[in-house]
Amino acid sequence: MKNLIVSLDHAREFDEIVDVRTPLEFAEDHLPGALNAPVLSNEERVLVGTMYKQVSPFEATRVGAAIVARNIARHLDSTFADRPRNWRPLIYCWRGGKRSGAMTTWLNLIGWQARQLDGGYKAYRRSVVETLDTLPTRFRYIALVGHTGCGKTRLLQALADAGAQTLDLEALARHRGSLLGALPGIAQPTQKGFDTQLVETLERFDPAQPVFVESESRKIGVVSLPLALMRAFHAGPWVQVDAARDERIAFLLDDYRHLFDAPDAFKAQLDKLIGLHSRGDVERWCAMIDANARAELFGELIDRHYDPAYARSSREHFGRPGCVLEFHFRPTASDARAQAETLIAQLARGGLPAAAGPTTTETTETELSTKR
Question: Helix H segments across 93-244?
Fold first, then answer.
């Protein structure tokens, strides 16, 4: 079997990657582009695992082998029925053990050139973690920093439309990053799934071009950003984005209008602010929801919660003299792309370096001091 086992370095050489783990394991995370063809269902894996502990390893293996054989037969009749004679799949399971070994053996007996991934998903996950310690440092980031409601995410999307290289962390996390940032009806990825998407995104970037990124805290909803990425974009130059207060309120009213469709859930989220704010303040905000006083509510949240929180975070992460431009953005205007093109042009006129370079705070500040 040794000649049927290959390392992760060869994964791109195959026609298809097949994940034979359970649907639950696959949903948590998987190799990019992999097809799920489980040899044990979620329930079958629990059954075999319970037998292993409570009956005997032999009996569990015997029963598990019979189930795996039936499931492989089913995949041969359905999932893989149309694969050509020269098909070359890479098969993996959790650790590169019996599940992927059984599938690899059968596919090769049929005549396909199947190979088993050495170390399975665990080897891939280890590679992702190691990559996130180094890959983010290959790029120069330009962080968009600004108050809640100034439209940083909309500006980031407009920059992408204008051809700039952008890293939309909130899109990857499927969350807007604030207390009220959950997207309606959309679940966040697992931490492992987020990490995989982040590596995929970064690997597509050109190190010779800057990467625009929105300033974020370490956590976006339930997922965490890798420290190497946080340090890299905190150490780089940044753009101070601002917008008029009435435009910020109008933007939030549009972006968070779904919150008023579920007022009880909205109030439950605001209740979590008790401790940061007095119970009386939070009760007043909840009463504004009942009264449908939307603009008044977001005005108070801006003045009493979001702006003070931004001031604290900004001092902590962007307090050094790294601001290369102050940019006024109109987040509700229809010309977002044109505004983004203006920002790109202003940065170019200011001599902001486009090529990637060292991302330590010391080096970046030295470079910027020669351009101010």
Answer: 98-110, 120-134, 152-161, 169-173, 191-203, 227-235
